[in-house]
Amino acid sequence: MALLEVKGVSVSFRRARGWFAHEESEVIQDLDLTVNEGEIVAVVGASGSGKSVLAQAIMGILPASARLEGQICYAEELLTRERQLRLRGDELVYIPQSVTHLDPLLKVGKQVQPVHRKPGERRLSSRLQMHKAERELTDRYQLPKGTTKKYPYELSGGMARRVLMATATSGEPKLIIADEPTPGIHPEVLADTMKQFREMADRGAGILWITHDIASALTAADRIAVFYAGSCVEIAQVMDFTGTGDGLRHPYTRALWNALPQNGFQPIPGSQPLANQRRGSGCPFAPRCTAATPACTDQHPELRKLRGGEVRCIHAT
Ligand SMILES: Nc1ncnc2c1ncn2[C@@H]1O[C@H](COP(=O)(O)OP(=O)(O)OP(=O)(O)O)[C@@H](O)[C@H]1O
Ligand code: NI
């Protein structure tokens, strides 16, 4: 079953311009993405491509200046504001990109206790729960003993990140939106985090995992969604990332793959256009694409199915 379906979602931000006027920049454009039960979908793409904005749209925490179009469904029903509020922190959990999301005034231990929402289920005594939280943090996340008694400001960035992970995974969530959960994490903890994601997925959860690190995404994800300038340009299978990238469908995905150290560090010239620099309606990658033709600048390519994946490029075969 599809746990998360993002259908034709666009997000734009309104900004004042001068005294009376305002301008809108579209930072996500007509996005389609699905996460099924038991599946880990990694979202990769350059900084500013719209990954975190998508996470915020799903969680219902976009700022008031944002306008969202399109539909987001959870468990095959529209994810309305009311459902977002009801499911958040329970079935639907979020690991935010910024550690400022920890409550600064609450000791860490209080923040990693599992939620018990089932009717009639007795809450564990608070001391017992504290012990459980402590064990989780020391055993699984290798944090020093006593971490639960600390306040967030007493933790390093990497420690705070592990606390965020523990906070999000201490219950039994169905859909996890993890925005860059791994930077600053020790390689062993990284491997364990990915193992934990896999176990949760094997129990039926769906995970949308936003990351800069394609190499680690490839070791744990089932499918990879590639973002460029607010568009999802390709959805690939992990096994497509091999050799010189001939199995990949979009020139940007191929360029990302060939820019990895193990593939010879071949950078692509130019840079991703910012939302307010995108001109016209063509393919956003066209200005940097060696395969671009005049037709590429005419219209935004449709997302179409190709060789077991999806692509937005009129030339992909
Ligand atoms: N609250 C906001 N108001 C205005 N613009 C915003 C806001 N939040 C994000 N943006 C813009 O939306 C675009 C996408 O940002 P987003 O944070 O989603 O990028 P990202 O892909 O997560 O990047 P990174 O990899 O650096 O985390 C950027 O151009 C950013 O400046
Ligand atoms: Ni981000």
Please explain how this structure is put together.
- Strand 7 (175-179), helix 6 (187-202) and strand 8 (206-210) form a beta-alpha-beta unit.
- The strands form two sheets. Strands 6-7-8-3-9-10-12-11 form an eight-stranded mixed β-sheet, with helices on both faces. The chain has a four-stranded antiparallel β-sheet with strand order 2-1-4-5, covered by helices on one side.
- The chain has eight helices and twelve strands.
- The protein is 25% helix and 26% strand.
- The protein has helices at 51-59, 81-87, 108-111, 126-140, 157-169, 187-202, 214-220, 251-258, and strands spanning 2-17, 21-36, 40-45, 66-74, 77-78, 92-95, 175-179, 206-210, 223-228, 231-237, 304-306, 309-311.
- It folds into two domains: 2-91 and 173-309, Rossmann fold, CATH 3.40.50.300; 104-172, no CATH class.
- Nickel (II) ion is lined by residues 51-52, 97, 179.
- It is found in: Cell membrane.
- It is a peripheral membrane protein.
- The complex is composed of two ATP-binding proteins (NikD and NikE), two transmembrane proteins (NikB and NikC) and a solute-binding protein (NikA).
- This is Nickel import system ATP-binding protein NikD.
